[in-house]
Amino acid sequence: MFKNILVPTDGSELSDSTVARAIVFAKEAQAKLTFFYSQPDFPMPIYGEGALIDPTTPEQFSRAAAAEAEAILARAKTEAALAGVEANGDTVISEVPYEAIIEAAERNQCDLIFMASHGRRGLSGLLLGSETQKVLTHSKIPVLVYR
After folding, report:
1. Mean pLDDT of successive 10-residue segments in the chain (147 residues)?
2. Distance of CA 22 to the CA centre of its chain
3. Whole-prediction pTM value?
4. Domain named UspA: which ranges (predicted)?
């Protein structure tokens, strides 16, 4: 049914659990996986009274973010390979992760997005929102939410 599944990951414990479950799901579905990491953009410094000066340059930040992305994606791809599941990785720099996730699914011709839910409910879920909720409401590609 599904041929290529996008699995957004950020290297967190919840994300690692979702990666493991997505690998099992892909193996059962005989699908390949595309792991995706949305790199943060360099934060704009805020100047003024009491502002902290960050000595990190945009280039240093970019290199560190790219190295983190590579490490997270390599770990996920290695797990998939150990399970006998074909997988590749994709990453971009984005200030809006949910948009980057949807664009990655389209760019990689994925037919399913397999994501974790942080489980926020009620007012906190409404106010804080979540990337999963935003993907669910904006994606034309089916989304499977793992809890």
Report:
1. 96 94 98 97 65 70 94 98 98 95 98 84 53 94 93
2. 13
3. 0.87
4. 1-147
